[in-house]
Structures are given as structure tokens and as C-alpha cells.
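Team,

Forwarding the record for the chain on the shared tracking sheet. I've put the sequence and predicted structure together so nobody has to dig through attachments.
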Amino acid sequence: MEDGLFTQLTDRPLADKLRPETLDEIVGQEHLIGPDGPVRRMIESGRISSFILWGPPGCGKTTIARLLAHVSDMHFVALSAVFSGIADLRKAFEEAEKRRLYGQKTLLFVDEIHRFNRAQQDGFLPYVENGTVTLVGATTENPSFELNSALLSRCKVFVMKPLNGNALQKIIDRAEKTVGRKLPVDDNAAATLKDLADGDGRYLINLLESIYDLAPENSLLDREGLEKIVQHRAPMYDKDREGHYNLISALHKSLRGSDTDAALYWAARMIEGGEDPLYLLRRLTRFAMEDIGLADPQALPAAIAAWDAYERLGSPEGDIAIAELICYLGTAPKSNSSYTAWNDAVKAAKQFASLNPPNHILNAPTRLMKEIGYGNGYIYDHDTEDGFSGQNYFPEQMPRIRFYHPVERGFEREINRRLQYWDRLRTEKMKKK
């Protein structure tokens, strides 16, 4: 049979065939489009207001906007901030104004809206305010950081979730029904397929299409066979945006919680995503000081040694130094007592900012300084029986303040014992005066 004029229409991509035609067919976003979801309530009330959809790739942002325009009889206009500029926006607004004269509303969908600069985002404001367009923006980045506060104040923000296992399975079931045959994979391969999708429905559909197109006939792929057909996905990580801060926060808090395995996972995610290993080592060194401190005095030298080793070896050999450091820090006793002691000392330094040291601990290199009392009454600690004079080293007008409160963990347990010993001696010596 020869190709006809419309033969190509039957060879649509699987993603086009599986595109939801109703809101009920959208999976994984029940909190927005379910019976009590805010998007569903807007539709039922007939009052569609501007909003921002914030979520990861492949979770259905574009689909929700397109179907929302359909059910509300609004004209749907789609722009991408990656490919559009001021001229495209101006044209969209002008055409929306013309349609408004004839009583038709316009839903303007802007994908990757965070990529518009601040001035371009300001350009939306008058048209959103006067109702020329209902704006639906889609972004993978935190709107709090990437969108103007003025624009955010005029738009609701709806958070979309990555698709979970159940939602991904619904897409697989729909694909099997549409194609007319079961996906040729065993249970382990099917589980791997969902892991590879990592919550991205669009990516999953592309994987399904590859399997249907490339799997040998009458075969059943196991995990190894599946991995020969599909390529591993690059980690979703942008070291210049929110993902960078989210993952380093996850790493830091996993270490603080002594969950070494979780910390290794987050660190691997960052490295695989292209993060600078030296940035990671800098943060791990900070952790050694801030969250372990003197509970394990070897944590800081270990961090410096790992940093030095990586700079000498580079990747991949130096990656082992990072892994060893994470294991050391994760399993070390934790204490932030030095960190809090310093912060409290800084506060006291600001509060008592102009007090002089007591005269007895001041050096007196000149006769005049000796005559006015510098160094008078100083006791050389090494000359005492205990090696401890118990003298006051704070300014005379300032109360004695305890900044450092070591914990009863790790080496700080021994430090506590020492502090108690000196406190007792200081009290005894004060009584003798």
C-alpha cells in the first residue's frame, strides 16, 4: 500500500497518543485536580485566576494548562521563555486584547517562565491585572527565588509532585492498552524502568517507545536486556540553581543525623550531576568544625587530609577520599558546642565592647606602665603547685560568662572532666583570698 496524504498522521509518537484528554486522565497530581484540589475548584466555580505551576520535568504542567483552557472555553496560547522574547509577548498580548473585544478570554501558558528576566516578568503585570490574559506559568525552579515578588503577588503557586510508582504504572498500563500488547519486560526490568524514569512521565513514555521499537519480537527483557536498549539518565541537578542548595542541605543534615549511607547518596548525586568536588570538600570541612568539633578532634585533620588528597589525585581516585571523609564524619560523635561558644562570645564582645583587660594580665615593658599597675599581681601559672592560678582573666567590670558547654559525647566527655577540675580549683582558690 502506497503512502497516502494522511498516512503520517497514524504514526504519531507514543507521547502524543498518550496525552491526557481530560483532567481525570492526569496521574500523580490528585492534590491539585482531585475532588478537593484547588485547580478542580477553580474549574467548578468558573473563576480561573492566574497561577504558577512549580514542579519537576514530566509531571504534567503543560497538560494541566492546556486542558484547563479547553474546559473553560478559553483560547490557549503557549510560549516558551527559552525561545520567546519581548516581540512574542507583545504579539500575544495584542491578540489577546482583540479576542477580549469579542468576548473570548485567553489563557497564556508560559513554559520555563523563570528564564524571563525581571524586566520581561514586569511586562506581564498590566495584562494580568486588567484581565487581558489569565497567566499560567510553568517552572522547575523555586518561584520564591526566580520570579518577581510583584508577579508572585498576583499569582497563586501550585506545587506539582514527581510521579510516584503508582502514577508511573498507570502510564505503563495506558501505553499497553494503546499499543495493543504487553510491555516485553519482566518484573525486575519493569521496576528498573520506573527507577530510570525518576518521577518523569515524559521520560518514561520515551523509554516505553524505545522498548516497543527496539525489543526483539517475542522476547521478554530482563534488567540486563533493558539496559542494552535504554541509556541511563543523567542525574537531574543544576549546580547553579535550587537543586544545588537542596542537595548540599540534604548532605549536611544527613551527616548531622549520623546517616552515613544517606550522606553518601546525596554526595554521589552531586558529583554525578557535575558539582565541583572542591566545593563539596569545603562544605565537609566546615561540617567537621561546626557539627563535630572537639567531640572528635581528628575530624578537622581528616577533612584537610581528604581535601589535600583530592587536589593531588583528582577524579576518579580522589573520589575515594571524599567517600572516606563522609564515612568518618557520619560515624563521628557530634557536637556544635565550639560553634555555639564562638557565637555567644561574639555577642558578648559586642555587648562589652570597650572594656580593658584587667591590669594584672597586661605586660609592662616600660617604667610608666609598671607605675600605673600593669602586670601588678600577676601569678605565673607554672609556678603554682597545680599549674593553675585561678585568676580572673575577664575585664573587671564584666561578669564571668560560660560560653563553652561541651557535650557528654566523644572526646568532649574528657574535656568536661577537665573543666570541672579547673572550676573546682578556681572556687577553692577564690575562697582562700
